[in-house]
Amino acid sequence: MSGNDDTRWMRRALRLAARGRGKTSPNPMVGAVIVKRGRAAGDGSHRRAGGPHAEVWALREAGPAARGATLYVTLEPCSYHGRTPPCTEALIEAGLRRVVVACTDPNPLVDGKGIRRLRRSGIEVAVGLLEREARALNAAYCKHVTTGLPLVSLKAAMSLDGKIATASRESKWITGERARAEAHRLRARHDAVLTGVETVLADDPELTVRMSRGSTPLRVVVDSRARTPATARLLTADERPPVIAVTRQAPQTRIRRLERAGAEIWVIGSRAGKVNLRSLMKRLGRRGIQSVLVEAGGTLAAGALAARLVDRVYFFVAPRLIGGADALTPIEGAGVRHLSQAWRVERVRVRRLGDGLLITGELAK
Length: 365
What we know:
Blueprint: H1 3-18, E1 31-36, E2 39-45, H2 54-62, E3 70-73, H3 87-94, E4 98-101, H4 113-120, E5 124-127, H5 131-137, H6 139-147, E6 151-159, H7 177-188, E7 192-196, H8 197-203, E8 218-222, E9 243-246, H9 252-260, E10 264-267, E11 270-271, E12 274-275, H10 277-286, E13 291-295, H11 298-306, E14 312-318, E15 345-353, E16 356-363
Parallel strand pairs: 3-4, 4-5, 6-13, 6-14, 7-8, 7-13, 8-9, 9-10
Antiparallel strand pairs: 1-2, 1-3, 11-12, 14-16, 15-16
């Protein structure tokens, strides 16, 4: 089979994998295609955590046609017993001739073991086709299994001159309906959404997914002194209680009041009297949270950047000019003193959303 054919089938596997976006965590998104005599014999994608893996769905669809066929899979097949049996054994038993893998699985339980098992059984294995695309698809999974930390995305909605609210703190709505719908889709693709208590006090948000299909992520409020009102809408807006991260300096009376209102309280170590964001991210990682969307004011956004936690940015820009030195910006605080210290954004993409724009990019490491 030619290299062009291999690429075509792997792209199909990547499209299948993307169907699991927002549904498979803490497992990765995986797509698989079984090809025989130049035609697809079976397709599969990982649909939900705990369910059959993509390779298993593809094998079921292919049936006996899998013998002597080629499998294209976006991530190295697993070789250990987890919630499901190892995929490597199913592939060997099916009699595949060749397996093309986009990228290895960085999970220490796999990390090359699946590929070695297939090769020992006599199956030809090729690795690295469209590797960059495959790793980007599972960037959150890869970061979590290698560092224990979630992938952190920073989202902001602003005017053309970079303001997220007027001097009177009015912010609803700077962007249009299409941008807001896209923001809800973005929220649904993350395991958790994080905001600060100042946003709760100013806007009383629900932080649920409403303008898009998908589940509401775990909602987290950074609230060092437990100032969230017991009447806040986010306390009753979803079946899953929100997490409110406080410090040891938070008054116990406020903590008990929030617990009675349904909140889950996490006491996190402090830094300069505020919740230590890196400690909070570590705890979220231990909870199995692989991706966090920061939807907050400029102070919390600046803190996340200063702690070197942010991996990606999503900036929605509306064709409005607000002006004024007292209007709020997406990143508050002192900022950097020299341009050489600025956070550099790479792989920038610009997309039209109605009359506005969505600018995305990745923070340079």
